[in-house]
Amino acid sequence: FMGNLLHGDFGTSYKYAGQSVNGIIAEKFPISAQLGLQAFLLSLPLGVFFGIVAARKRGKALDYGLVAFAVLGVSVPVFIIAALLQYIFAIRLQWLPVAQWKSFAYTILPTLTLAIGSIAGRTRTMRTLMLEVISEDYVKTAKAKGLSSARIVWSHQIRNAIIPMIPNLGLEIVSILMGSFVVEQIFAIPGIGAYFVNSVTGLDYTMTLGLTVFFGVFI
C-alpha cells in the first residue's frame, strides 16, 4: 500500500467492488467542491457586510437583529436549517427542488444551508473586530484630519479589522471543500462526504486511508 501511495495510487475500495479510490475521488470530489465553493463565495461577502453594518449601527434595532441572527445561525443544527429551508422554499412555496443534484436550481438550498452557519459566525466575528478598531487612535486621528466617514470606514476600519480573519479562511475553505456529510445526506448529493463517513463505518480501509491522505494534502 505504501509503495502504491508514493505513486498516488490509493488502491481499490473494499466496499465498492471494482472501483478504485482514485476514481471515486475524481468523480465525487468536484461535487463537494462546487457546493463548498458556492457556500464560501456566498458567506464571505455577506458575513463581512453584516458584521460591518452591525458595528456601525451598534445599539440600534438593526444591530440587535443581526446579532440575533448570528446567535441563531451558529446555535441551530444544520439539519434543522436544512429542513426549514426545504419546507418553506420547496414544499410550501414550491420555488426550488427538495433534493438531488441535477442543475443549478438543485444547488441553491444546500448552498444556503451550508452558508448560513458561516455567515452567522463571520458576522459576529467581524462585528467584534470592527468595534475594536473604531476606538483605535488612528481612527480618531483620521476623524481629526477631517476625512469623510466613508473613507474612514473603508481605508482605516474595514481594512484593519478584516486582517485577523484572513488566517482562518484557509482552514475554512478546506473544511468546506471536504463537504458536509449531513447536508449531502439530507439533499441526496452524491459528494465525497458520504463516502468518507461510510468508509469508516463500513471498514473500507483503503477508502478511509486514501481520503485521509487526500484531505491531509489540502490541510
Task: Give a short summary of the structure.
With 219 residues, the chain is mostly helical. The protein is built from eleven helices and no strands. It has helices at residues 2-6, 21-56, 61-75, 78-92, 104-134, 137-144, 149-161, 166-177, 181-186, 192-201, 205-218.
Task: Name the descriptors.
globular; 219 residues; mainly alpha; 11 helices
Polypeptide structure, described:
With 219 residues, the protein is mainly α. Helices cover 75% and strands 0% of the residues. The protein has eleven helices and no strands. Helix 6 packs antiparallel against helix 7 (149-161). The longest helix has 36 residues, at 21-56. It is globular. 30% of the residues are buried.
What are the SSEs and their pairings?
Blueprint: H1 2-6, H2 21-56, H3 61-75, H4 78-92, H5 104-134, H6 137-144, H7 149-161, H8 166-177, H9 181-186, H10 192-201, H11 205-218
Helix pairs in contact: 2-3, 2-5, 2-8, 3-5, 4-5, 5-7, 6-7, 10-11
Query: How many beta-strand segments?
Result: 0
Main sheet properties: none
Ranges where pLDDT stays below 50 over 5 or more residues in a row are none
In N-to-C order, the SSE pattern is HHHHHHHHHHH
Strand content: under 5%
Shape: globular
Radius of gyration: 21 Å
Report, as a whole number of angstroms, the end-to-end distance: 22 Å
Helical fraction equals over 70%
